[in-house]
Amino acid sequence: MPVASLLPFTATPNRKSASPTSFRLTEKFILLLVFSGFITLCFGAIFFLPDSSKLLSGVFFRSSSVEAETSVHLNLGFPLRVLTPKVCICCSHGLFALFTGFSLRQGIRVHISKALSLKGATIVDALDTLYIMEMYDEFEAATEWVESNLDFNMNAEISVFEVNIRFVGGLLSAYYLSGKEVFRRKAVELGEKLLPAFKTPTGIPWALLNLKSGIGRNWPWASGGSSILAEYGTLHLEFMHLSELSGRPDFAEKVMNIRKVLNRLDKPQGLYPNYLNPNSGQWGQHHVSVGGLGDSFYEYLLKAWLMSDKTDEEGKKLYYDALQAIEKNLIRKSSGGLTYIAEWKGGLLEHKMGHLTCFAGGMIALGADGGPDDKTGHQMELAAEIARTCHESYARTSMKLGPEAFRFDGGVEAIATRQNEKYFILRPEVIETYMYMWRFTHDPKYRQWGWEAVQALEKYCRVEGGYSGVRDVYANTPNHDDVQQSFYLAETLKYLYLLFSDDDHLPFEHWVFNTEAHPLPVIKKQNVEIRH
């Protein structure tokens, strides 16, 4: 299998000049760097605004860079390049130690989920972030760790969903960005390890899988042992690419079968319940959410169509039909004028919106162009309203960071009323929506809102060993949970970086982000051999 090469980061040869607003924000970021000093994770680069061609001239990848003589056999349909790195924005002596699990501050912990049970989640999740930010020294160190230490031959039970979006997605993205064969090899190897999860009567995969025995099961709390919509519905992008890179059709066949099962089922009010029994093929409890348990299923319907170069008409129809049902049954407006997405439980609405649900603003904006002509403007307005609501959930806290969930009942709007919903664990969904909204509208408020989030993260979440979640965003001083989630590096920082980048940096016509923010290339219909 020939080595895949670096995909173009830019859609056009020349970068756009920055607006006056961008320069003002750039100055803020430079000051932040001066006063912040050494950031252990070496993600100080996130606080530069790459709008300024003066500041970052020559930093981003350009078509004039040295090209390698490599043949690539991929259905991508646009030029692939291996580009010579020119500039490393910043370096860190502490990053790799943190990646490999060593504490740089007593009490700070890099997130290693029991559901993952694999070492290296932070390394693999952050690979593409390192590469995109041109932190090549750290990227090479992480690559060496993957080559020498990333091992899937263990007697461990893992979450198929989490391992797929973080490990498989991270490895695939690193391969497409760098062209390093180790990432392709590891991604396919891990994909093969996940295939036994599909050995159920319906082909709907188990949530949990022992990598050694191949024995799967579901979470015992999930509606009588059901599979979860957001888990079995968030495999499509990665598995389609595994088939492309391995030449094995079975990866794609597994995820296409999931659609066949869903197509046979009646949907209550056109909605998809969060639970499905993999043995009977019937819905479990009728709980519908665009947040936790459901969220990325809808995202992957849309992105499957986009990643197919808009040839997956079935995915497109499923997405727009689902969005119509969501708008009719779940989307409401508060008395104060805030649009929110409620949850549906057995026909009754719970007027609660989770932080996870805030990704929907970006999703709806991303899909607005592909809907019926008379819906495009409406969908962009809806996306903007959701972005505003999620911003309000941040603005109405003491720390200007959003709670895990917020409510619209009992006289409150966009506020968490329960103690177990007041925490913030460095989640990316609000920043993600800001990034998409900026790309599609260029309304400066989205960059301003992103800057507000940067200030809050620096003030309340930054600790000596990295960044930590906080237990109560309504408190005046932070009570840190001392956990840095791997998605902070994979998603939150990457989306912030892209929010302040030009539109032709990882352009949407060439790249689709998986739900962990790992960019995957659009797969062109025709099979084209491309030479550099």
UniProtKB/TrEMBL annotation:
Its cofactor is Ca(2+). GO terms for molecular function: calcium ion binding; mannosyl-oligosaccharide 1,2-alpha-mannosidase activity. The chain crosses the membrane at residues 29-49. The keyword Transcription does not apply. Disulfide bonds join C358-C390. Its EC number is 3.2.1.-. Pathway: Protein modification; protein glycosylation. Its main location: membrane. It is an enzyme of class 3 (hydrolase). Keywords: Calcium, Disulfide bond, Glycosidase, Hydrolase, Membrane, Metal-binding, Signal-anchor, Transmembrane, Transmembrane helix. The keyword Membrane applies. Involved in the maturation of Asn-linked oligosaccharides. Progressively trim alpha-1,2-linked mannose residues from Man(9)GlcNAc(2) to produce Man(5)GlcNAc(2). Belongs to the glycosyl hydrolase 47 family. This is alpha-1,2-Mannosidase.
